Each structure stands twice: as structure tokens, then as C-alpha cells.
Amino acid sequence: MQSPIGQCASPPSDTFVRSGRLKWYCNEILRRIEGSGPISVIEFNKEGTHLAYGNSDGIVSIIEIGQADLSEITHHRHSCSKPYQVFLSHEPEFDCLKSQAIEEKISFIRWLPRSGLSHFLLSSNERTIKLWQLTELPTQSFTNLNFPVECGCRRKVVIRSLSDIKVPICLKNYENTNIRVQNKKVFARAHGFSIVGLSLSADRETFFSADPLRINMWNLEVTNEVFSVIDHMLDRLDDRSHLITGINCSNSSPSLFAYGTNRGSIFLCDTRSRSICDYPSLAFHSLAADESDVLTILTNSISDLKFGQCSDYVIFSRDYMSVKTWDSRMPTHSVEVHPVQLHLRKHLTVLYETELLFDDFKLSISSNDRYV
């Protein structure tokens, strides 16, 4: 869908736009191993050159996006992909204190900025977050050796003087690389409930993780310390009307972050005003405080939210029936509402009974905030 809010760049080229609307096409179908678990999350890196996706078996797969040769039929270049790397990110665990099994299913993947020949990303299941480094290492070959390396060669080399000694030469082929995967950090034992949000801060040194009652701030270099910026752990869970359903950090300010709740509210927090953000700086509400209809609450629950790419004033949110645009300069109501799948409204009771009403839908924003 198209949104006029926060346009800061020229519209996409005519290759992808026809009559002001995006042109979608199926680029390819991923060839996945038979018997592998269903895909649970996908995430592009910022440059759009790599796509990572995780499945319910705890496996993270990465493909590299490139440009195909010029088509003789359409005379256009379309994107193509090739496998980049596959690795096991998480394994099933067991919480002995709660007698609860923790699935290996990948819940979130977040790319970090690239550094040199290495890619970095965060992957998370219900409880544990891991930092991974993927390094492109060129293949090496050696020449000018003193001894033959051919298999079965029996030729002997006689060294009588220093002039007979050769200095081996290492040749690196940067066109043919091997991908080395390393688990650099493990961030664990900080959440008592399933992680519902993961977001990288604008300073690229810290990130936030959230469960229904707590939001933690981590430093990428420190695994044994975590700072809780929001903690709603109460003796009686019945007293908690708002449960956290997602979190997103500002793209430009390291101190700003926003989180959504199960009652359709978005709370904007600023760590410069207070270190413990139990009281937000600004609040956006979709429902009245006394709303009691179960179906209305469930359909307005925030499943995902994103700051605008061009401005911190704009926040986009996704619930079951709509995509909404919020402006912090007008917090009393949403400035735009884009209905989604309205044909399901008359079937909400059936969806509730089959638990399909609890499905989460994600949100993605174009680089110029024009397309949602």
C-alpha cells in the first residue's frame, strides 16, 4: 500500500512502478530440503544484498541477492539469488525451574552493519539471543613448494645448498570464497517469558529485547550484564492491562524507542528523560481505556510497529485488520488507517474459536516511507 506520509526521496523507478502502483512478481521459489521445518522469520540486510530466514528447526539460512544477465525476451535485468550459508543457530532447551521446554524455533533475525569482509546478525528463539559473524575468506593455493604435493608422487627433492630452497608463495582467490560462521556472543537468562521483540539501536552498540512484561537493553560487547528499562513484573498479573507485543528503535536517535501493547496502544519512550521508562514520554491509543469486548481488543492488538525511515515523528503499526500511521505531533488519533482483509470481519467468531485470530502479521517500510 502507498502512504504519502514522510516522503523524503524520489519515487522508485519505472522498472518497479506502473501507474503509481508497485509491480509485484514472483522472482523464484526457494528450494528447501524436504522435511525441514516451516519458515518462521525472514529479514533483509540494509543494503538488500542478503536475505536471512529462520525455521522452526533452529536453522538460519542466508541467500545472496544479485542481478541476472540481460533477458533476451523482456530486455530487463531481474534479481537472482544463490545460497550463501546455512548454520544451526539454536537447539532445543529445557527450563528446569519452570519445567518448560524451550523450542529451537527462530523468532527474530536482525542484521548489523557490515564490517570489512564480515556480516553480523542477531538471531533469537524464545529465550536466548545470539550474535553471529559470517566472514568471507578467499580460497588459498600455494606454489613454489620445496616438496611435491601430488598424490602418489615419489619424486625426491635433494637440497644441497641455500639456493635449492624455495620460498612458498600463497595465492588468494577473492572471486572464490568460503564463508566461516562464528558464534561471537550469547545473551541469555534475562527473560522469564517468550521474547516478543528485538530491535537494534541507532548507535549500533546496543539493542533492545522485549517480553510481555519487560524490556531489556544490552550492549553487544557485554553478555553478563543487562539493564531493564521497563519492568512490569507484578505479584498479580491480573493488574497488568497492557502486555508488550513488540518494540522498535528509532533509526536516527539512540535514545528513542517505542513499544506496542495488546490493547492497541503505542508508547514512545526517551531514555534521556529517565533511565527507567515505566512512564512513557508519549502515548497513542486505539481503544478506550474501558473497552471490554474481547474481539475488539484482539483485532486491535499491535503485532508489529516501525519508525519511519525519514522521520522519528512517524510510526507505522500493524494489527489484525489494519495498518495505521501515527504522528507524534498529533497523538490523539492515527492520521491514516489502511484496512486489511476486511472480508474476515464477519468471521471473527470462527477465527477466535480456531485460534487463528492470534496470528501475528509483520510490517516493512520502504526507504522513503512511501510504501508500507
Annotation keywords:
372 residues, mainly beta, Methylamine Dehydrogenase, Chain H, 2 domains, 4-stranded antiparallel beta sheet, 42% strand
What does this molecule look like?
This protein is mostly beta strands and 372 residues long. The protein has 2 domains: 30-69 and 77-135 and 181-187, no CATH class; 190-371, YVTN repeat-like/Quinoprotein amine dehydrogenase (Methylamine Dehydrogenase, Chain H), CATH 2.130.10.10. 3% of the residues lie in helices and 42% in strands. The chain contains 2 helices and 24 strands. The chain has helices at 294-299, 348-353; strands at 17-18, 21-22, 39-44, 50-55, 59-67, 79-88, 93-95, 100-102, 108-115, 118-124, 129-143, 169-187, 197-200, 206-211, 214-219, 222-231, 244-249, 256-261, 265-270, 282-285, 304-307, 314-318, 322-327, 336-339. A 4-stranded antiparallel β-sheet has the order 3-4-5-6, with no helix packed on it. A hairpin with a 5-residue loop joins strand 3 (39-44) and strand 4. The longest helix is centred in the last third of the chain and has 6 residues, at 294-299. The protein is elongated, with a radius of gyration of 25 Å. This is Serine/threonine-protein phosphatase 2A 55 kDa regulatory subunit B delta isoform isoform 2. Keywords: Repeat, WD repeat. One of its GO terms (cellular component) is protein phosphatase type 2A complex. One of its GO terms (molecular function) is protein phosphatase regulator activity.
